[in-house]
Amino acid sequence: MKTMTGMAGGTVPAHAEADHPKVRMGRVGLLLANLGTPDDTDYWSMRRYLGEFLSDRRVIDYSPWLWQPLLQGIILSKRPFSSGAAYRSIWNEEKGESPLATITKAQTAKMAERMQAMFGDDVVVDYCMRYGNPSTASKVEQMKAAGCDRIVFFPLYPHYAGATSATACDQFFRALMKMKWQPTCRTVPAYYEDARYIEALARSVERAYAALDHRPDVLVCSYHGVPKRYLLEGDPYHCQCQKTTRLLRERLGWDATEIVTTFQSKFGPEEWLKPYTVEEVARLAEEDGKKSIAVIAPAFSADCIETLEEINEEIHEAFEEAGGERFTYIPCLNDDDAHMDALAAIAAENLAGWVAPRRAVAQAAE
Questions:
Q1: I want to staple 67 with a disulfide (CB 3.0 to 4.6 A). Which of 5, 62, 348, 353 is the partner?
Q2: What's the Cα-to-Cα distance from 58 to each of 55, 79, 82, 164, rounded to whole Å?
């Protein structure tokens, strides 16, 4: 598939005068969106990234009059040091980037391969980040310049939450607001109950269990947390997470005692969705006597700081300190082929009517 840079040419719009300049048009963009990543692990890179992330009113909705002095004066003076150390523990030194960046690039490449097979050169595939680089605005501009007069925006979050899917779409819409000539756009909805996504999750669990010399007592489905208040204000995230766990259990054919739903990454003083993963894994070891658990993170489409550092290090340690003996982390779906097939099928459904699959075009020609 052609990339967005380096494409030459263009066409004269229909019914235009002969001397009308050529413009690029008629192409469709598929823009994948993930959370974001710092450019490096040093203090200033971390401060820029955390400043953008923690200033998002979708993430922290306290009054700026109260929050910003605390953020700028205290949090961003100290947190870049600890966050930088956490990122350094998982950093992809070979490529000079975070694992999330590496994985998202791999996902984009595999998505491009699948779109090429389905639609030929009619679909341009790229990715952006809500926070950090490459920015959403820069990629929307590039797609427009590449002749994309239609764009499907695909947040890589299986579950909808105001702090994830909504803020990604907000940033996409902000980019459109600055354009004189906006492309026509669609956004891909959450896919938490999509049978293809559930199947990919189930296969990853089955592979992980088959590789072990023992069967874990419990599978902990650890989802990123949000304040409980968000649920009470109408955010559907909690309910969608619970449904994913139920569908996964049903697909695996397991008893309800073999799988639990928990929430991680609590931040700030207020109550968040419970049970908290770090407390629940300790409780499973101390009170229930569970010596072996596996943990999976269904809400993350790619491994990142919350999975590689928080789950595989902090939560792992909490389980062992409480008496647990065998801890297994099941990686995110990342660029696993079953996962990419599911995402490609979802993307194709959202491209329907804008571009025809090659097979359909060939059959029509016959």
A1: 62
A2: 9, 20, 23, 8
**Looking at residue 271, what is its pLDDT?**
96
Mean pLDDT estimate for the chain: 92
Domain-by-domain residue ranges, the chain?
27-38+98-190+338-361, 195-330
Is the domain spanning 195-330 CATH 3.40.50.1400? The answer is yes
Same fold, 27-38+98-190+338-361 and 195-330: yes
Burial of 55 (0-12, 13-18, 19+ CB in 10 A): middle
Residue 17's contacts (CB-CB under 8 Å, 6 or more residues apart) are none
Taking the complete model, does pTM exceed 0.85, yes or no? yes
Assigned fold of 27-38+98-190+338-361: Rossmann fold (3.40.50)
Q: At residue 6, does pLDDT exceed 50?
A: no
Task: Specify whether the CB–CB gap between 247 and 198 falls below 8 A.
Answer: yes
Query: How many Cβ atoms sit within 10 Å of the Cβ of residue 116?
Result: 16
